[in-house]
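During the reporting period, we have paired protein sequences with backbone structure tokens. One record among many follows, to show the layout:
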Amino acid sequence: MKGEIFIKNNKYLIDFSKGKDISIPLLFNGKQPNTYGVQKASSEPYSNENFIGDTRKGGVCNFETYHIVPHCNGTHTECVGHITKERIDVLSSLKDLMIPAHLVSIHVQKTSEKYIPQLNEDDLLITRELLLEKLKDVPNEFMEGLVIRTLPNLPEKKSQNYLTNSSPFFTIDAMEYIKERGVKHLLVDTPSVDRLLDEGILSAHNTFWDTENKKFNPKTKNKTITEMIYVDNQIQDGHYLLTIQIPAFVSDAAPSRPIIFEINEL
């Protein structure tokens, strides 16, 4: 199915049959990314004395129980409720169905930019300097969504244990710039926008959502962060239309399937 859309004053053609999935498929009981060493996402047939939910074992149908920690087992989208004392859910926060977005690839680097707590010598970061260089010519109408692919972009991202393999994260200066550009939906292929072991400060999260002391800011309720995506190397940097699919979970985060569509100006 094809359609014509208007973004600001420009008209674009989009083919909705050619979306590019940038999530990591969750292989229950198989290889999958993991953060903080939590239990892997798993599934098992439901059973009791009268029923077995596995057709391979004589059951009438497959009927499974799933165990998952969305923040740690794969691609997920989170809202401000991830860090606030107030229980805000992602289902009511994610209201945008179609999001003009820009995909950019970033070579992470060491930096002297600001971060709390103090940076370690081997930390690699997404910096304001890098984002300024890459996004200076991107019009604001395509900055509602920002998709960041970190380089090198290795397939191991889809099954990596991030507790034993460090990952890049954002400086506070970079996150301030992202706010200045009006980004509502930030997507990144790292397990967190913060350093995983950051003394619980979550400075990049708090900067993005304008929260202080874990207090809910209603002005940022509809902003989301999606972590642990994977953008194939064949997908080019540029403008896209983004949709973020989530199950109807009333929770601070949910497994997600972001899809981007190429657009062509008419």
Q: What stands out?
A: The chain has a mean pLDDT of 95. The chain has one domain: 2-29+69-265. The first helix runs from residue 70 to 73.
